[in-house]
Specification:
By secondary structure, this protein is of the alpha/beta class. 49% of the residues lie in helices and 18% in strands. The structure holds 2'-deoxycytidine-5'-monophosphate.
């Protein structure tokens, strides 16, 4: 069976990463979290005083972007992907609400996107990958053999993010999270470079009322259908 590229795009906090990870594990593919790369760049800006009064120092970031090393390694125990920023494990930090507040601004910068998209294409060269994000099916891999666009209501997504944060012991406020979800949706959909939108040939998956198991059955069915055709 031929290896393919699977692009999973959609709104923030709709369970894309969990779903993409589980799918990759099930079919023996590599998983790449493109959002983690933008989060790592946002964290880099925060650590290097590149954010003043809520705004990114574009000039400073431009001069450093090619030197920011972002790599992934599998956790030896859980096999989950861990993000490293210049050699340091930042998997936990990049998921904080502080990073979530800045990441859409960072992801809207043209040279940041160009750099990340180049790196993502490199990761997908060998095929046999599942990559999730916002522009994977439209910009990074427009030729991907399988594209899925995931959505769920903003309230359902905010609740999931709230549960995720509280489960790991972080403080969380539902209203604040809902506002962050809505704000990120707006920035992601209206930015000039690679706005979030469903590719014409992507399969639509609204998982507001689906269990993870139902989702997986659906995905595997679609994957089997497509790989039979390849
Ligand atoms: O999926 P996530 O919430 O970890 O993504 C973090 C941010 O990065 C989010 O604001 C959207 C942005 N992003 C993007 O613009 N393009 C991608 N391919 C992935 C994420």
């Amino acid at each position: 069976m031929k290896n393919i590229v699977i692009a999973i795009d959609g709104f923030s906090s709709c369970g894309k990463s969990t779903m993409a990870k589980a799918l990759a594990r099930n079919i023996g593919y590599l998983y790449f979290d493109s959002g983690a790369m933008y989060r790592a760049v946002a964290l880099y800006c925060m650590q290097n005083n590149m954010i003043q009064e809520g705004n990114i120092d574009i000039k400073a970031l431009r001069s450093k972007i090619s030197e920011i090393e972002i790599t992934f390694q599998a956790d030896p125990e859980t096999k989950n992907s861990i993000t490293f920023l210049n050699g340091v494990n930042v998997e936990h930090e990049i998921r904080s609400l502080e990073v979530s507040r800045f990441v859409s601004q960072v992801a809207a910068i043209d040279f940041v996107r160009t750099e990340m998209v180049d790196r993502q294409r490199e990761m997908g060269k060998a095929k046999g990958i599942v990559m999730d994000g916002r522009d994977i099916g439209t910009t990074v891999f427009p030729q991907a053999e399988m594209k899925v666009f995931v959505t769920a209501s903003a309230e359902v997504r905010a609740q999931r993010r709230y549960d995720e944060l509280t489960a790991r012991g972080d403080k969380a406020n539902f209203q604040e999270i809902l506002e962050n979800v809505l704000q990120r949706d707006h920035i992601d959909q209206t930015r000039e470079v690679s706005p979030l939108k469903k590719a014409d040939d992507a399969l639509l998956l609204d998982n507001s009322h689906m269990t993870r198991e139902e989702q997986m059955v659906w995905l595997i069915e679609e994957f089997n259908k497509l790989t039979k055709e390849c």
